[in-house]
Known about the structure:
Layout: H1 5-10, E1 16-18, H2 27-35, E2 40-43, H3 49-62, E3 67-72, H4 78-88, E4 92-96, H5 103-109, E5 113-118, H6 121-130, E6 135-138, E7 144-145, H7 151-161, E8 166-169, H8 175-183, E9 188-191, H9 193-196, H10 205-213, E10 220-222, E11 230-232, H11 236-250, H12 253-266, H13 270-275, H14 300-322
Parallel strand pairs: 1-9, 2-3, 3-4, 4-5, 5-6, 6-8, 8-9
Antiparallel strand pairs: 7-11, 10-11
Helix pairs in contact: 2-3, 3-4, 6-7, 8-14, 11-12
Amino acid sequence: MIRTRITELLGIKYPILQGGMVHIATYELASAVSNAGGLGTIGCGNYPAAWVREQILKMRELTDRPFAVNILLISPHVKDVLKAAVELKPKIVTLGAGIPRHELPMLKNAGIMVIPVVGSTKFASLVERLGADAVIAEGMESGGEIGDMSTMPLVPLVVDAVSIPVIAAGGIADGRGLLAALSLGAEAVQMGTRFVASKECTAHENMKQAIVRAVDRSTAITGAAIGSAVRALPNKLTSGFKELEAEYLCSDEKEKEAKRKKMIEFGMGATRKGLVEGDTEYGSMLAGQISSLIKEIKPVKNIIEDIMQQAEQIIKNKISGWV
Length: 323
């Protein structure tokens, strides 16, 4: 059994957290993860507070175990969602897409554990000073919006920069990834793409099968030219984005704003099309580089148990081999 400060702090059996993926990190998936011994997460995305309340209440009908609510600080409904969190008091809130100077202390004052997602040592140190209970150091291998550092250097740098526990995210899908993260000093991992390809995830079957079919180098990064890099499986949408980015980079200063708006309009609603509606051509099929390691859609319980068994077997084999 692998026990860390994170398993003790959050009250979970295994050092595995589920990411708050927009549209598809719903109570169905989150409750399955929590019931299997990990930490399930409801992803609020840009949904209104009423939706978040409903998700939390349904979650509590399906599990009595700890779970998290992921809140994006750039959401147009963030104030009302934060208010709902304070009232309903999930044990943990993870925060992303912004600097939580006011939001973090507010949640802490309500008795909620707060774990921000960070992409640099500077940000990690800042949220520690604000009172964060832990941080999720997310590398650019992950799906969706990404930073500019990979997991391997980011995690130990953050571990050295803060005294609170660090959770590694980005490029992790099996027991080998879990042990690698622990070796870097992390005390748990967060996985998104691996849980998308699960029986309980509400993602469209087309999305799940696209992950299973992925090979190495099967992801594309778009939006970096306008400071909003996103990783997804390649299709006509990503090809179109790359063409628009090339136009943007080649345009003069007077044209850049119009080109930027054109790119934003081109991607409007694409995430829902890909993840929920299963549009494999013009939908945004958000997925991490680890997709090519995922060969099967399985129940969450089996995913978590397989990861832990693989990790424990590696430990056993390596100890006997190194002595």
